[in-house]
Write a structure and sequence with these properties.
It is found in: Mitochondrion. The protein is of the alpha/beta class. The chain is built from 9 helices and 12 strands. 24% of the residues lie in helices and 22% in strands. The strands form 2 sheets. The chain has a 6-stranded mixed beta sheet. It has a 6-stranded mixed beta sheet with strand order 7-8-9-10-11-12. Bound molecules: fe (ii) ion. The site of fe (ii) ion (FE2) has 6 residues, from loops.
Length: 286
């Protein structure tokens, strides 16, 4: 039997974003039972905007590489302290989309942790170190997230899904941003939103995942923390409807103007900081 190290790709490859979704993992021989032991996962909450931030790390890898999905500026220090306490090496700060309800923590994190790269979709037109497209893989150690384009809430929304190999966490996990919320979905009346597109995105990119795939949204306002594809296909009050009914529901939500949008969107187009090259704060060592 091959040793673990012999199967591990060099670090430069493990950080690569350029592999396509149909490429074969070199780790398919790993026993299934090992897969969940690799992933360290934490769901974190920012109460003012009811935002979830997710910390994922490959703790079986010697560097314990980690990433944050949708960090918030106000809770960036909390998240960095946690990563430090857990002995993780943060390598990516990732957004599912350009948020309108809070300022992202990605720019701030970059000033505090040397080497962290910010990531957002190319379709968002926002500034980041790495702009990803549908089909890209974001590796952290031997684990990866697959990028799926799920526009409709905003034009650049993506869903990040854990890998589908036997060496990847099972069941799969989908970080859906605001495309699919638990028993809901993001609004479609700003930022290039389209109810038509959102309906297609959810049905073609999320509801086609295995039914036991866990749904981790960017927000929850009622205390839910996780759902599954199966649950949302059965009980989502909007997306279980036919497309015309869905469009009519979305057109008649009568929501207020988002109170943070005029501050948050311009800031989030540049990583949450108007000037990401501003004088770095004291380096955060992990
Ligand atoms: Fe949003």
């Amino acid at each position: 039997m091959l040793k673990l190290n012999a199967l591990r790709p060099p670090l430069s490859r493990s950080l690569s974003l350029t592999l396509h979704s149909d490429s074969v993992s070199p780790h398919r021989n790993y026993a299934t039972s090992m897969s969940n032991k690799k992933l360290l996962f934490r769901q974190l909450f920012e109460k003012e905007s009811s935002t979830y931030t997710y910390l994922l790390a490959d703790v079986s890898h010697r560097d314990r590489p980690a990433l944050l999905i949708d960090p918030v500026d106000k809770t960036a220090d909390r998240d960095l302290t946690l990563a430090k306490e857990l002995g993780l090496k943060l390598i990516y700060a990732i957004n599912t989309h350009v948020h309108a309800d809070h300022v992202t923590g990605t720019g701030l994190i970059k000033t505090k942790v040397p080497g962290v790269k910010s990531v957002i979709s190319k379709a968002s037109d926002a500034k980041a170190d790495l702009q990803i497209d549908a089909g890209d893989r974001i590796y952290f150690g031997d684990l990866f997230l697959e990028v799926r384009a799920t526009p409709g809430h905003t034009q650049g929304c993506v869903t990040y899904v854990t890998g589908d190999g036997l060496d990847q966490p099972q069941p799969r996990m989908a970080f859906t941003g605001d495309a699919l919320l638990i028993r809901g979905c993001g609004r479609t009346d700003f930022q290039g939103g389209s109810s038509d597109q959102l309906y297609q995105s959810v049905h073609s990119q999320i509801f086609t995942l295995p039914k036991d795939t866990l749904i981790y949204p960017a927000h929850d306002y009622r205390g839910f923390t996780v759902s599954s594809v199966e649950e949302e296909m059965l009980y989502n009050p909007r997306l279980t409807k036919d497309e015309e009914t869905f469009k009519s529901i979305m057109a008649n939500l009568n929501l207020q103007y988002p109170k943070m949008i005029d501050i948050a969107v311009p800031a989030n187009m540049v990583c949450g900081l108007q000037d990401v090259s501003a004088k770095p704060a004291e380096a955060f060592s992990s």
